[in-house]
Structure formats: C-alpha cells, structure tokens
Design brief:
DMF_alpha_dom, three-stranded antiparallel beta sheet, about 25% helix, about 100 residues, Small subunit of N,N-dimethylformamidase, alpha+beta, single chain
C-alpha cells in the first residue's frame, strides 16, 4: 500500500485545479490512499438538499446503520470535497496540512 510522504502535501494544490480526468498519477495515488479505510467511522459526503447543500457524515458500524451528520454545511460539492480532503489528510498522515492552503 502506498505510504504518504511529507512532499505529497505539495500535490494537494492540484486538487482544486484538476478534475478526475486530468489529475496527475501522483495525486491520484495519494487520493486513493486517503480513501482506503474500514466502513465503520469512515467520513463521507452527504447531500442534504438536492444540488444545493452538502455535509460531512460518519458511517456506522454496519451497512444500513444511520449516518451521523457532522455540524457545518457547504453550498457546493467542491467545498465539501475540499473539507473531506482535509479530514482524511489529518486521519491518515502525520504530516501537517500545508499552511499556504486555505
């Protein structure tokens, strides 16, 4: 499994300026690593108002368990994805979030 390195933080800048079809392989490698975790306690994006509002939720222990919705809402999917990236970065790495990134 890919181990995230401190220098991978520089790739995070490209997350907002690329899409799934144009992302560099190195960034995709980091993103895939951040997505791999057990379902219990996994953070997910939840659409709370169709096409208008999103939130971050936490999955339960088993399939079908209710999702715990965290405080805070986002007016765009991109904002929710950026927050999700920050959360997963803090969970899966010991490297600090780059100060020059929002």
């Amino acid at each position: 499994m890919y181990e995230i390195k401190a220098e991978d933080a520089q790739l995070l800048r490209q997350f907002r300026t690329t899409n799934t079809h144009t992302r560099p392989l190195e960034l995709n490698r980091v993103l895939n690593r951040l997505r791999i975790e057990p379902l219990e306690g996994k953070h997910v994006i939840v659409c709370t108002v169709l096409y208008k509002e999103w939130a971050i939720g936490v999955l339960g222990a088993r399939r079908g368990d209710p999702i715990t919705i965290l405080e805070g809402r986002f007016s765009s999917l991109a904002q929710a994805q950026w927050q999700m990236l920050k959360i997963r970065w803090s969970i899966h790495t010991t490297h600090p979030w780059p100060e020059d990134l929002e």
